[in-house]
Amino acid sequence: PRRSMALAEQAKRVAAEFDFCDDAVGKAVKEFIREMDEGLEKEGTELSQIPTYVTAVPNGTEKGLYMAVDLGGTNFRVCSIQLHGNTTFSLTQSKVAIPHELMVAKTSKELFSFLAKQIEAFLKLHHEDHYVGTVKRRAGGDENQQEEIFNLGFTFSFPVHQIGINKGMLMRWTKGFDIDDAVGKDVCALLQQEIDELHLPVKVAALVNDTVGTLMARSYTSAGKTGTLLGAIFGTGTNGAYVEKLDKVSKLTKDKDAGEYDKSTGEMIVNTEWGSFDNSLRTLPNNPYDIELDKNSVNPGIQMFEKRVSGMFLGELLRLALLKLVKDPSVPLFTDENSASNDVHSTTQIHDSSPIWKQWGIDTSFLSVCAGDHSPGLRMLRQTLDRDYDISAVSAEDAEAVREIAAAIGRRAARLAAVAIAGIVINTGRLGKSSATATTAQKAGVEPQRGDVDTDQSDEIDIGVDGSLVEFYPKFEEYMREALRAVPEIGAEGERRVRIGIAKDGSGVGAALIALVAGRVE
Ligand code: ADP
Predict the structure, then answer these.
(1) Spacing, Cα 368 to ligand 1 middle (Å)
(2) Is 400 inside any structural domain?
(3) Least confident of 43-52, 108-117, 218-227
(4) Is the beta carbon of 113 within 6 A of some atom in ligand 1?
(5) Are 27 and 118 part of one and the same domain?
(6) How far is the CA of 369 from the centre of ligand 1 (A)?
(7) Residues paired with residue 207 on neighbouring β-strands, in sequence order
(8) In a domain, 256, yes or no
(9) Contacts of 493 (CB under 8 A, 6+ apart)
(10) Could you tell me whether strands 150-156 and 202-208 are parallel, antiparallel, or unpaired per DSSP bridges?
(11) What is a single molecular function from GO for this protein (predicted)?
(12) Domain final residue, candidates 183, 208, 233
């Protein structure tokens, strides 16, 4: 019992290193707002605040047939989307792995002609009626015999300097891609050129960032009266895009390369690139595990917010924190001699093969297992340690220590996520927009119901989210809301007005919607 008390105390101490108190949340929100404004004015700031040239969000009544493609990593996805105009849609999709030699090809033509061929195969298979003229045109037949043109949204998840709704220069490759001659070129033009060589009836109408796709997809399917304010991703990485007042995006008028855009809505969606919020650590927490993770990363000092929030990193933070206890000579974790005395294999063992010894050895999904295990003695958690992490016969006390530390890391991530959400909700002034009916209801003492679609929506601040972390980590939203309530400018009343919904298929339906909006402008 002495050991277990000492271990419990140690675990509490490590967990407490991940505390991010209400006061700290408030300070970080102020910094987020400062960086938002700075990023809207000039280049080279911590929040990049990239203008996307998308100037309207959908309301669910949009209709039509569109195409979307997504080049983001290992796969290339092609899909067509029928928007039914009643907040619903149908989606046909195909997916193909990108051959590695094309990721590092000598010329960008090799990659982009491969992409165009996938689009052709998709059309042949699913949209024969759109494809018929292609063959004739290719044979030198009647060029005027045109079938309907498909407008296509191109989700391209690499850093680009966007200068128009379908124009953006590749700044650099990431994620294992490396094709020199593409850098500095307009990726939409590269794709269009290959599409044209195949005489396909397809126009690259929009260049899409995945967060903007999430925002658009959510706005279409939720059909709120005011439209969705923010699309946010909490997956491998984290990022958000939101609806900003056009006159606040002042750097757009200073960009000599900036192309034309529609000014009629007075708004533009801005891609924050918030993964790099507060890289200089003015307000972000920075404990010994954060420091070590950053030091051993490929990009020290960069993406500091992301390194505390997203799926790629939370498992590693847990691994580093657990190792601290494993190596603690006073009460080493996972060395319980007589754990569970009724268990035959009573001695806990961390096998040499355990991934816990290796960088990135623990996956963030393990945090979800820990947070979701309500069984007596944390059976699931212990089973997972045994099966996936080669740590066998873990005692209940040790399991509890793991659970506590994992929970602290998950909770801190969600509270940090709330910083970004709060900053955007406050800085866009959405809290001030409260409808007359809602005010009357509040005066009459009627509690607005959270998440209920049938209640008056005009008072709601709608947020679309996507990514495994927010989707599968139990209580991620609850922890986020707890932190939102703690921000003085939001409080319990403001938090209640925030509606959060999962937006699936951002790179499909979202890209289609951007292609649609782009088509309207011309
Ligand atoms: P991506 O962001 O790459 O499009 P996902 O949204 O699926 O894809 O995010 C993948 C990330 O989510 C990985 O870092 C993974 O560790 C993490 N992850 C996967 N499953 C879970 C889970 N059940 N709970 C928490 N995190 C998860």
Answers:
(1) 10
(2) yes
(3) 218-227
(4) no
(5) no
(6) 13
(7) 154
(8) no
(9) none
(10) parallel
(11) glucokinase activity
(12) 208
Q: Say whether both 134 and 9 belong to one domain.
A: no
Judge if the beta carbon of residue 275 lies within 6 A of ligand 1. Answer: no
- pLDDT, one tens digit per residue, over 84-132 is 999 999 999 999 999 999 999 999 999 999 999 999 999 999 998 877 7
Average pLDDT (378-386) is 95
H or E element that contains 117: helix 108-126
CA 236 to centroid of ligand 1, rounded, Å: 5
Average pLDDT over every residue of 303-330: 94
Considering the domain boundaries, does residue 9 fall inside one? yes
Residues 24, 161 within the same domain: no
Instruction: Give the list of residues 6+ apart from residue 25 with CB closer than 8 angstroms, or none.
Output: 415, 418, 419, 422, 483, 486, 487
Rounded Cα–Cα distance for residues 464 and 233 (Å): 9
CB 169 within 8 A of CB 185: yes
What's the rounded Cα separation, in Å, for the pair 239 and 469? 13
Instruction: Assess whether 24 and 93 both reside in one domain.
Output: no
CA-nearest residue, atom 7 of ligand 1 = 468
Among candidate residues 355, 386, 411, the one where a domain is terminated: 411
How confident is the model over 278-296, as pLDDT tens digits? 999 999 999 999 999 999 9
Average predicted confidence (pLDDT) for the chain: 89
Give the three-state DSSP class for 251.
helix
One domain for residues 23 and 89: no
Report CA(311)–ligand 1 centroid distance (Å). 5
Nearest-angstrom CA–CA distance, 389 and 435: 53
Domain limits at 299? 2-33+281-411
Do 487 and 29 form a contact (C-beta atoms < 8 A)? yes
Helices marked H in 354-490 — which ranges?
A: 365-372, 379-389, 396-427, 436-443, 468-472, 476-486
- pTM for the complete prediction? 0.89
Total domains in the fold of the chain: 2
| 68 & 29 share domain | no
Alpha-carbon gap, residue 307 to 303, rounded angstroms: 6
* Mean pLDDT across 31-40: 98
CB 461 within 8 A of CB 427: no
Task: State the complex-level ipTM.
Answer: 0.99
Residue 504's pLDDT band, with cuts at 50, 70 and 90, is confident
Residue at token pair 């690259």: 204
Residue 306 Cα to ligand 1 midpoint, Å, equals 13
Same domain for 394 and 313?
yes
Same domain, 12 and 61: no
Say if ligand 1 is within 6 A of residue 235 CB.
yes
- Ligand 1, atom 3, residue with closest C-alpha: 236
CB of 312 closer than 6 angstroms to any ligand 1 atom: yes
Residues 353, 497: Cα–Cα separation, whole Å: 49
The identity of residue 474, as a single letter, is P
Residue 3's alpha-carbon distances to 334, 335, 464, in angstroms, are 12, 11, 46
Does residue 427's CB lie within 6 angstroms of at least one atom of ligand 1?
no
Would you give the DSSP letter of residue 122? H
The pLDDT, as a whole number, for residue 445 is 43
Phi, psi dihedrals of residue 233, rounded to the nearest 5°:
-115, 130
